[in-house]
Amino acid sequence: QPSSLGVAADRQTQLASICSAEMAAGAGDSGLKRKGLLDQSGVDIFEGLKGKKAKAATAEGKKKQEKVDQFAKEYAQDFCRGHVTDDRPFVGAQPKLLTQPEIAGSAETARKTAVVIKAITKLIETTTLGVHIVLGQDAADSPVAKALLDRSTDESTSKGAPTIVSMSLDWMHTMPLVEAPKRPDTSSRLLIFVGTPGKYLSM
């Protein structure tokens, strides 16, 4: 008597031959065409399009196609990351997970400072409405901030000056005042805020 393994192998061979026969029969069936698309009634959609040619695109259609191509190009460029040089500020920045606190060394601090100086200098050179420097309370101990305040003139004679220096509200609140301090106008000039970034966002 044949073993159980032999019977199982014979059954697998028979099933394989049956499946091959059904697939061969189905390939010749008109309902399983490999080319074209069938609608719900089983009719080939492309059968009714034989001998017909696509209409030439109109000027309006070409403009729409150009707009779609431009959108597709811009969308693709968002995912294309090229080589980013170190002297370009805030380009290609990626979040970095630190397992331990890390303090930048003198070389890293000098490199980042040079990047910021280059960016700010370019902004100052290209502005046409003047510069407004706002010093936060964090800058109270800075000798550069003290020099800027000492060399500044009175507010009544500073109109039209290319550069205006003022203190932010968080610093002015620490001083005795007769009336409430006024918020400086920061909507027209190039604003350079020296202080905590979170306090700048609340201006």
Description:
By secondary structure, the protein is mainly α. It is built from six helices and three strands, in the order αααβαβαβα. Strands 2-1-3 form a three-stranded parallel sheet. Helix 4 links the parallel strand 1 (131-135) and strand 2 (163-167). The N and C termini lie far apart (94 Å).
Strand count: 3
Separation, N- and C-terminal Cα atoms: 94 Å
By secondary-structure content and strand pairing, the structural class works out as mainly alpha
Q: How big a fraction of the residues is strand? A: 5-15%
Overall geometry comes to elongated
Widest sheet: strand order?
A: 2-1-3
Major sheet attributes: 3 strands, parallel
Q: Count helical runs.
A: 6
Oligomer: single chain
What letter string, H or E per element, gives the SSE order? Answer: HHHEHEHEH
Q: Which residues form runs of ≥5 with pLDDT under 50?
A: 1-5, 29-34
Approximately how much helix is present in the residues? 40-55%
Measured on Cα atoms, how large is the radius of gyration?
A: 37 Å
Give the overall average pLDDT: 76
